[in-house]
Amino acid sequence: MTMTTAEADKILSANFAPWVLELGLSVQDLSEDRATLRLPWSAALAREGGALCGQALMAAADTATVVVVSAARGTFVPMTTVQQSTSFQRAVTDSDVLIVAVLTKLGRRTAFADISMTAERTGELAAHASTVYALLG
User: Fold this and answer.
1) With 0-12 CB in 10 A as exposed, 13-18 as middle and 19+ as buried, what is 132?
2) Cβ neighbours of residue 83 under 8 Å, at least 6 residues apart?
3) Which of 3, 62, 114, 129 matches a 20 to 30 Å C-alpha distance to 86?
C-alpha cells in the first residue's frame, strides 16, 4: 500500500527539529520510490542578494530522503544521514522550489537517493544532491 501525502506530512511534523519545520516543507506527490516536496519561497531563507541559501536546499534534500525512504518502507523508521553531496547550479530567487527525491536503492540497512531541486517559477534545476542513509529500525 502506498503512503498518502497526508501521512507523509505527519512524518514531517512528528520527526523533525523545529527549525526544519520552519522551512515550511510539504509533500506534494508520493510513490514507492519517489517523493516531491515543496519548499516555499521565504525572504527569511534568502542570503544577501536575495538568493535562497544553500543550507535550506540541503536541509530540504535531506528531509525529502527521509520521506521517500519512509514511503518505500510503508512507515517511518529511525534513520540517519551517512553522506550527502550537493551541487549548486544556479541561484533561486523569489520562487518556490520543488524537491524530487528518487530512491535508487533500498537495502536492509542502507538507502540511496538522488534529489533534484528545481525553481518552480523558471523550471530550471537549481541544485542536485545524492544521499546515503543508514536505516536504524
Assistant:
1) middle
2) 130, 131, 132
3) 3
Strand order in the sheet with 110-119: 26-30, 34-39, 97-106, 110-119, 125-135, 79-88
Q: What is the pLDDT of residues 50-104, one digit of tens each?
A: 999 999 999 999 999 999 999 999 999 999 999 999 999 999 999 999 999 999 9
Cell 520521506, located at residue: 67
**Geometric angle at alpha carbon 28, from 100 and 2, rounded to 5°:** 90
Residue type, 42: S
Beta bridge partners of 133: 81, 111
For residues 52 and 90, the answer to whether their CB atoms sit within 8 Å is no
Which residue has cell 535562497?
52
pLDDT(11) > 70? yes
